[in-house]
Amino acid sequence: MNWKLADQVAAKALAEGSLMPIATEAEQIEEQGVRYLGHLVTENAGKKLLNLTAKHTSNPFLPYEKSMYVCEAGEHHVCLLNKFPVISPHLLICSKDFVPQESPLSWEDWHAWLGGFTHSDVLGFYNSGPLAGASQSHRHMQLVRSDIPLEKVISGGKLPFVHWLYLVEAMTTDELYDAYLKGLKALSLYNETGNACKPHNILLTERWLLILPRTVNNVQGLFANGINYSGRFLVKQPEQLVWLQEYGLMRFLRECSE
């Protein structure tokens, strides 16, 4: 995956008005030695809501918006920009044909996704179903280049809730796909009868793979998807950042996954 090309496509789309970033620059929130990142939404967030409402019964990836196209991602996938990014460029690796987001990832999905890990700061995440924060039902894996405030906590196996951690050795499709299947089994996330998975998030770097079950998608109206488990939050009002500090950021993550 060519991140330089992604930057160029994102800059062009932003200049044309088709790319609509939805967040301010992050501010740091410190808790127990971790410097979490908190963003406030911009007015573009309202446009995202209207966009989601308008496309409630349709598929935004079939067909996709041409200005969001970055490149092909193998035979079965395409790489698109997220039209409403918190971090830009924010890439989506989408299946060319419809595949339910709740169904297990295939070897081909992993192969296409891993093509984006060409820099050490790339973070991949996946939201399996609405309870895990998925806003679209069409198969899509996500990629950003990002700081990971919870990196040491994650890689040290110190997250205080149920999860499955794998330390990456070679970053090959076979290795990661096999590790993923073991993680699904260890967490009892896969329902073979229905060919669907229970709600969960996946976080991936070139150093580790994290899988965690989800039980709710919000606490007191503040929603969480996979990127939150890297230590990054998006809120609608400044008061919500204050509330998070008082409530506890790790407590919030724990209650979304237990």
From TrEMBL:
It comes from the Bacteria. Pfam families: Ap4A_phos_N (PF19327), ATP_transf (PF09830). Residues 158-257 form the ATP adenylyltransferase C-terminal domain. Residues 3-147 form the Ap4A phosphorylase 1/2 N-terminal domain. Gene3D superfamilies: 3.30.428.70. This is Phosphorylase.
